[in-house]
Design brief:
By secondary structure, this protein is an alpha/beta fold. 38% of the residues lie in helices and 27% in strands. It has a six-stranded mixed β-sheet with strand order 6-7-8-3-9-10, sandwiched between helices. The longest helix has 16 residues, at 168-183. It binds adenosine-5'-triphosphate (ATP) and magnesium ion. Adenosine-5'-triphosphate binds next to helix 1.
Length: 328
């Protein structure tokens, strides 16, 4: 595989706190690679070092052969970045935001106009190009950020939480654009805390937890680390949960109650179903499903924590940053 991104033992400390703790991985040319992890895992800090916005405390990374530490200017010319915190100016039109970006990258007026039109058409924002960004939906804003990151025709693209906060439909719309970029040969590093997203888009995934990569591989490889299926049983009457649990346990099955359902961990769902069905025959059951291993489960088993935990919570650092920006 020809390597586009080579990350070598990156470390970032903030006042002694290690946000990124020795991260290494390689991304092949044309590959879509995801960093999957919960709030505070160190995904954005990693992307900021790779895009030269933050200087590593230790370690280095080569992007298309250029060192982020020694050749940041060269790195910037070959990368595009769509950051987690949106950068487009609300009071300007989509066109102006992209055009200014093109000029900042040194394109002359006519090239900048041509590229602005191309990327806005490509990402499906042409009809809205002359509207103020303030009137855009969340999905349109995310698409605009991607358009801005593409004006100078980078070969490596960093997408930091490209679908954060979007509804399922807009998220899928954005996935189509990302897949299309990959189809055109772009090398893409994406961060997400939606395991479904990592699974749907990525060639390979690195699971990040507290500044470290705890597992790396294709979605299938990672899932094969979790052996066995889960059977979820939902009774008509929640009062039956305990009874169902006990009758399964009396057969020696590994069962537990998780948010209104009984979960049975089995080696193979299809062959265990008849046994489970017989065991709970005396109860009225609303639904019974076999769930194959997901990346979420891989994450839970590796870290002992749920991936989606704290998704709605307040990250104290972000909160402080928000306060600072209000005071300014
Ligand atoms: N400039 C900074 N100063 C101090 N601490 C920071 C700074 N930037 C990030 N951190 C801390 O480093 C850790 C990693 O943050 P980072 O933003 O990289 O996580 P993340 O994986 O991108 O999380 P999220 O899903 O919330 O975007 C967090 O604990 C965060 O509070
Ligand atoms: Mg982040």
């Amino acid at each position: 595989m020809s390597v586009a991104v080579d990350v070598r033992s990156l470390v970032k400390e903030f006042n002694g706190f290690r946000a990124v703790d020795g991260v290494s991985f390689k991304i092949g040319r044309g590959e879509l690679f995801s960093l999957l992890g919960p709030n505070g895992a160190g995904k954005t800090t990693t992307i900021k070092m790779l895009s030269t916005l933050l200087r590593p405390t230790r370690g280095d990374a080569l992007i298309e052969g250029f060192s982020v530490v020694k050749e940041p200017g060269r790195v910037r010319r070959v990368i595009g970045l769509a950051p987690q915190d949106l950068t487009a100016d609300d009071e300007m039109t989509g066109w102006d935001n992209v055009y200014i970006q093109a000029r900042l990258y040194g394109l002359n007026r006519s090239d900048a106009r041509r590229r602005t039109r191309e990327v806005l058409q490509w990402i499906g924002l042409w009809d809205a190009a002359h509207r103020k960004v303030a009137t855009y939906s969340g999905g349109m804003r995310r698409r605009l950020e991607i358009a801005m990151s593409l004006v100078h025709e980078p070969t490596v693209l960093f997408l930091d939480e490209p679908t954060l906060g979007l509804d399922v439909q807009s998220r899928r719309g954005l996935w189509r654009h990302i897949t299309r970029l990959k189809g055109e040969g772009m090398t893409i590093l994406l961060t997400t805390h939606y395991m479904e997203e990592a699974e749907a888009l990525s060639d390979r995934v690195a699971i990040m937890h507290r500044g470290r990569i705890v597992a790396i591989g294709t979605p299938d490889e990672l899932k094969s680390r979790v052996t066995g299926d889960s059977i979820y049983i939902e009774p008509v009457d929640p009062e039956d949960l305990q009874g169902i649990l006990e009758s399964l346990e009396s057969l020696g099955l590994d069962a537990s109650i998780i948010s209104g359902r009984v979960v049975v961990r089995v080696e193979r769902g299809d062959s265990a179903i008849p046994i489970v069905a017989r065991a709970i025959g005396g109860f009225r059951v609303k639904s019974m499903n076999i769930v194959r291993p997901t990346l979420e489960e891989v994450f839970i088993r590796l870290t002992g924590e749920a991936l989606s935990e704290g998704e709605e919570g307040i990250d104290t650092f972000k909160f402080r940053r928000m306060l600072r920006s209000v005071r300014r």
